[in-house]
Amino acid sequence: MKRVSFLIVLLLLLTSCSAGKSKSDTDKKQYVIGFSQISAESSWRERNTESVLDAGKKADYKILYKNANQSQAEQIKDVRSFIASRVDLIILTPIVETGWKHVLEEAVAADIPVVINDRLISEEDSHLYQTFVGPNVPIQGIQTADFLKKKFKNVPAPINIVEIQGSKDASPAISRHAGLLEGIKDDTRFQMIASVHGDFMLSKGREAIKNVAKSHDLRQVDVIYCHNDDMTDGVVSYLEETDIKPGKDIIICSVDGQQSAINLLKAGKINCVIECDPNMGEMLFEVVTAVLEGKDVPKENFTTGRIFSEFSELNKIEERGY
Ligand code: GYE
C-alpha cells in the first residue's frame, strides 16, 4: 500500500513538471486583437498585412483579421463586429482620412482602445484613438522634391510635373501631394501640370497615365511623380509602348521601395524611389502591448525610410522582400 501511494505521488509530480508551464503561465490571459485592414491593393499592402499578422502571432495575441476590400463602409462594419465581440484592442488601417468619428466613439464607449496602423485619420478625431504607428508621409514628398532639385540643377524653367496620386482622400495621397508641393514651393521652375488618381494600383496607374496622354503631350512632361511603386510599374509599362523612354525622356519618381521599383531603378527606367517600410508589425505590437499594460505611449510612432535614387550605390540595396 505504502509503495502504491509513493507511486501515485511520483506520478502527480511528474505530470505537473511535464506540462512545462507554471500556473501563472497557463492563467495568463491571451488578448484578442481585431485588425481591420484595407485590402490587398498593392504588394506593399500584402507585406504590411503579413508583417502585422506575423508579429501579432509572435507576441502571442489572438488576431481577428478582416480585409475590407477597399470599402470604408465594409471597414466600419468590421470595426463594429470587433466591438460586438468585445475584443481587447482594435488595430485600424483607415482607408481614408475622414468618416471614422461615429464608429470610433462606439469603441471609446465600449472601452476598447484603438491603435491606428499605417494611414492617419483627420486631426479632429485624433482624441478617439490611442496612438499611430506608420510612416511619416509628408517627408516623402519633400524628399522627392529634394531629389528633383538636385536632378534638375541648372535646368531652366519650366519643369513640368505630372502626378499620379494614390486613392482619393487617403492620408498618404493627401500628404504625398502636399509634401511635394511644400518641397518645390521655393523653386518656381517646377509646375504641376496634371494630377490624377491611380488608387495605388498597377492597372489604375497605367490607365491614369494613358488618360493624361489624351489631354497632354507627354513629350512636354519632364517628371512623373507616382505615389506608389505599383502605379509606377503601370506607368512604365505604358511608356514602354510609346517612343518615350522612361527614366531618360521623363524622370520618374516613386514611393515604397518594393523590389519591382528597385529593379526599374537599376535598369535606369526610373530615377528615384522613396522607401516606405511596410514591415511595421513589430513596432506596432510593442505599442499595442504598452497600451494594454496602461503605459503612456507617444501619439505618433514613425517608421523610417531611405532614399534610393540614381545618385545612390544601387548594388548595396538588399533584397526587399516585398
Ligand atoms: O504606399 C501603398 C499602399 O498607405 C503608405 O498604401 C500606404 C500606401 C503605400 O497601397 O503602396
UniProtKB/TrEMBL annotation:
Gene3D superfamilies: 3.40.50.2300. Keywords: Signal. Residues 1-19 form the signal peptide. The keyword Signal applies. Its main location: other. The keyword Ribonucleoprotein does not apply. This is ABC transporter substrate-binding protein. It comes from Enterococcus hulanensis.
